Amino acid sequence: MITISSQDFIDSIADSLQYISYTHPKDFIQAMTRAYEHEENQAAKDAMAQILINSRMAAMGQRPICQDTGIVTVFLRIGMDCRFDSDLSIQGLVDQGVRKAYLNTENPLRASVVADPAGKRINTKDNTPAVIYTELVQGNTVDIRIAAKGGGSENKSHFATLNPSDSIVDWIVRTVPTMGAGWCPPGILGIGIGGTVDKAMVLAKESLMEPVNIQELIEKGPQNSLEELRLEIYKEVNDLGIGAQGLGGLTTALDVKILDCPTHAASLPVAIIPNCAATRHIHFTLDGSGPAHFEPPQLEDWPKIKWEVGENVKRVQLDNISPAEIAAWQPGETLLLNGTILTGRDAAHRRIQTLLANKEALPDGVDFNGKFIYYVGPVDPIEGEAVGPAGPTTSTRMDQYTDMMLGETGLIGMIGKSERGDQTIDSIRRHGAVYLMAVGGAAYLVSKAIKKAKVVAFADLGMEAIYEFEVKDMPVTVAVDTRGESIHKTGPALWSQKIRDYRNRS
After folding, report:
1. 407: domain range?
2. What is the pLDDT of residues 24-77, one digit of tens each?
3. Are residues 273 and 369 located together in one domain of the fold?
4. In terms of C-beta density within 10 A (0-12 exposed, 13-18 middle, 19 or more buried), how is residue 371 classed?
5. Which of 184, 292, 500, 504 is the most buried (most CB within 10 A)?
6. Residues 344 and 259 occupy one common structural domain
């Protein structure tokens, strides 16, 4: 019988979560680098360059890759010859590690977990509880696979119970475009097949823990039907032309992972869960000899690339900007923003909606007239930072408030990630406003453009409070112009056609 020290277990959980908050897996870096090198759409290539540069900066600075530092998921395989020197449950031990990681003063991580999810949605303040899957197995070690899953990609998960004769590939090809760009492609698609409804979803999540190795599979060729399915889905998804950040391009999926399980003869449960450009997971084992050790990243693990300001990049001053200048911006154009912007996410928008409905004034310091709003919930800063990592959140969640904001507050522009819905695009057009896209998965890079930050309203909402940012050369892409043209519609349509034409010529 092996005794696992509870402190070793807690410390290993905490250290692993700290490590993956700022360190991409090496296989993911290699896959993203390959996609960057092969990309032909310059907008998508620029987005991947920012992701890779941000990844290197985060690892060297030991600050989060993404401001959404995720909800913790843990897969435990506990050997039956192991015991723990603690009266705490496994849930209690894991949560102690999560709490220690997320409240670390040297690298505080964003607490995103809320209790009473169907009611008051109160932040638990320490990102607990974790989601845990436990299996008792033979042996005398504890095998731990741990991930921090962001909400933007988690929200794009899908499940279907297909008929046994239905095509899994066809369902996935229909489903992926409905996921939009909120999952921050290019990333990894995890697929679970079989079992029951709940088992298929867990299989999909678990598959995302496996190494990125699709290129090795392409080189050696498939050895079984699941590998054949992986390759077919990989090809068909990339042929969609969705591309990095939904801008159109050659790579939408870096890999496709599949786990399956026997199922009922009348059923074909299929789940798909994407991992975003902030893929964070790690695998380690405890054997009673001490806590896990994680090798620090090496600078040579990242490609030597730079994101440079090209001739087509326009530097703009947002303070007192004129409608005529905004109207001149073109979809797909890169801008460097300077000046003052306000922030706001779901909770802040709901409070604004209530205030406006009750004919009440907005809080002092909150004036959206002629301003831009940035959809963001930043990480708390450490010494020397104006703000912690501060990448965009998924803009489609704010679609329900956009017409109100544009029509009643004088707001003229929005900054976020992913596409906007058709009604929102029409509202943007009618109000002569604009929507700009920052790169999801480049939070630390974006934060370097924020020179001053202060909370101006709703401080009790924590990371969902309204901030005022002063930005210098913050990189964004024009995603919806004042005429209602959306790059998230035109980009994928153009590149899917280019890919089809290339296939036909081949």
Report:
1. 313-491
2. 999 999 999 999 999 999 999 999 999 999 999 999 999 999 999 999 999 999
3. no
4. buried
5. 184
6. no
